[in-house]
Recover the amino acids of this structure.
């Protein structure tokens, strides 16, 4: 396993403005509930995932510079150079321990980490979640802020589709979820309970945000992108 250094906070500090331009200039993004993100200390942003631009949008509208876990396949060529300079974290979806330990280093530094618990672009309804987010929350002692991202992909569009100019998008931040390992509870049981708490909070937020905004999730959610 290749060791990965904790990325500098300077990357997200400058690259968030690229995301902001995309969210506000290229697309018309409404942001709700940004005040729920704690102003200081370690924070995890747990977002649903339907389209290819979810990462840049999340980085651009987050009230704090954010290191986002991105699939390692994106870290090639010019795009890969930009992602590394921007302080994003490559993750091997078959075994993401290196990415998790790197993200943990960011949290212990008091930074913000963004993660898509579903693992793949799909329907974005958070019916399932991988345990990495819970592991980070428990070990990094970080509150988890659920984030609903809506409008980046519509029914019939591929998971790699880039939304058209000035499409309306919505990003809604929910109330933080704090998970802890209670005395006498095994690490495994605490992880399972924490993961379900985060998943339910995210799923509920997505449902409420969709109802409030009128932006519906795509109905054709592939579990994985085509090879």
């Amino acid at each position: 396993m290749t060791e990965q250094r904790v990325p500098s906070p300077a990357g997200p500090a400058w690259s968030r403005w690229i995301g902001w331009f995309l969210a506000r200039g290229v697309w018309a993004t409404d942001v709700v509930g940004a005040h729920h993100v704690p102003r200081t200390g370690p924070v995890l942003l747990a977002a649903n995932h339907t389209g290819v631009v979810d990462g840049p949008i999340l980085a651009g509208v987050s009230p704090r510079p954010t290191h986002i876990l991105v699939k390692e396949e994106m870290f090639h060529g010019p795009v890969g150079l930009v992602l590394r300079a921007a302080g994003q974290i490559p993750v091997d979806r078959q075994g993401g321990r290196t990415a998790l330990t790197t993200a943990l280093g960011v949290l212990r530094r008091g930074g913000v980490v963004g993660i898509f618990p579903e693992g793949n672009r799909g329907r974005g309804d958070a019916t399932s979640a991988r345990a990495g987010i819970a592991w980070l929350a428990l070990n990094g002692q970080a509150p988890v802020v659920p984030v609903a991202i809506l409008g980046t992909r519509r029914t019939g569009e591929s998971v790699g589709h880039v939304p058209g100019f000035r499409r309306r998008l919505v990003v809604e931040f929910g109330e933080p979820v704090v998970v802890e390992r209670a005395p006498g509870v095994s690490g495994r049981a605490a992880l399972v309970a924490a993961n379900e708490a985060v998943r339910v909070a995210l799923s509920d937020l997505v449902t409420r945000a969709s109802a409030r905004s009128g932006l519906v999730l795509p109905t054709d959610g592939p579990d994985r992108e085509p090879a």
Notes: The helical segments are 10-26, 54-61, 77-85, 97-108, 132-140, 187-213. The radius of gyration is 16 Å. The beta strands are 28-32, 43-47, 66-71, 89-91, 112-115, 144-150, 168-173.
